[in-house]
């Protein structure tokens, strides 16, 4: 007899929570105890290799290399648009040696999965940077410009397949905003969701019938193929052009309503004291000034967007409402 998915998910979350909490307890019992500058765990609420994992590991490197924290561990807790990781961290109340990477995608996951746990239940630490979306096509695509793509899309909305990340994620939100900009009903959007950027690019480059013709993803997912010419960028969703990429912004093209960006930040479990929150903020503020972190920002073409503490908490509340509205208006919630 098949086990219902909801039961499997709950059991999975329970196991993960138990393992992570046990690891945290063991860590605190070793070495010099609970000093967050001795031992820190950064949770990436996604599988290895994705954007959240990248941020977690770049932070790990910067914190270690510059001696800000002696021992930094990255734990991956994937699933449900980051909400399994969110639920896990919410159950670790009072743990001051844990931070979790979060961002736009998690807000979409909260809305689409009707998550009972919200980001405002956690302790806001810092918003770090923005990561921009690219609309790309294979080098031999007949679409030379975004207008070419829009014209073909209007002619046959249900016949043109667009690929991106998980359903309801940032790529999907951008696709739906693009539909509005192209005067295509978002309900007619034929969206193909892929588990990661690698799977998307394989399908985007395939010549097999029925594969996607246009891809939407973060710059880092497409970067190597854009550099070697296998893909061409039609546009970027960013306030300014991405250095080294010959592609206009949506603002330049007159479509400033396509504006969802993939910001990344860090939150901690709820129930921390102001002193514990302040210490984690201080650690992050030291981290972003390091050469290691600055090199990561440059290498990954991020744009720094630092905001800390309660101001970041206010941003989380406002941004969640904005994402809720986008998903609802576009029929994705």
UniProtKB/TrEMBL annotation:
Coiled coil stretches, renumbered: none
CDD domains: PBP2_Bug_TTT
InterPro entries linked to this entry: BUG, Bug_dom1
Pfam families named in the record: TctC
TM regions (residue ranges): 6-27
Taxonomic superkingdom: Bacteria
Endpoints of the signal sequence: none
Keyword annotations of the record: Membrane, Transmembrane, Transmembrane helix
Family the UniProt entry places it in: Belongs to the UPF0065 (bug) family.
Protein name per Swiss-Prot or TrEMBL: Transporter
Organism listed in the record: Microlunatus phosphovorus (strain ATCC 700054 / DSM 10555 / JCM 9379 / NBRC 101784 / NCIMB 13414 / VKM Ac-1990 / NM-1)
